[in-house]
């Protein structure tokens, strides 16, 4: 619910919002270690997408 409320506000404030997220539940951990491989893959993908978005925005700013 918070995401649905925050993204429009951040977009209005001209923030660069990453269009994805990863939800993790307590059962995805085992003794403080991430045990769910699918969640790990989604986190890595989100990190890659975030870096690609940051690079794209950096390129746009440099050419402006």
Structural commentary:
It is a single chain. The chain has a two-stranded antiparallel sheet. The longest helix is centred in the C-terminal third of the chain and has 27 residues. It has one domain. The protein is flat, with a radius of gyration of 15 Å. It has 64 residues and is mainly α. It contains two helices and two strands, in the order αββα.
**Pattern of helices and strands:** HEEH
From the alpha carbons, calculate the radius of gyration and give it in angstroms. 15 Å
How large is the count of helical segments?
2
Provide the domain count: 1
Averaging pLDDT over every residue, what do you get?
Answer: 89
Helix content: 55-70%
Secondary structure tally: strands: 2
Q: Any low-confidence stretches, pLDDT <50, length ≥5? A: none
Proportion of residues in extended strands: 5-15%
Q: Give the CA-based shape.
A: flat
**Class from helix and strand fractions:** mainly alpha
Largest sheet: 2 strands, antiparallel
Intertermini distance? 35 Å
Q: How are the strands of the biggest sheet laid out side by side?
A: 1-2
InterPro entries: Flavoprotein-like_sf
Break the fold down into its secondary structure elements and pairings:
Blueprint: H1 2-12, E1 29-30, E2 33-34, H2 37-63
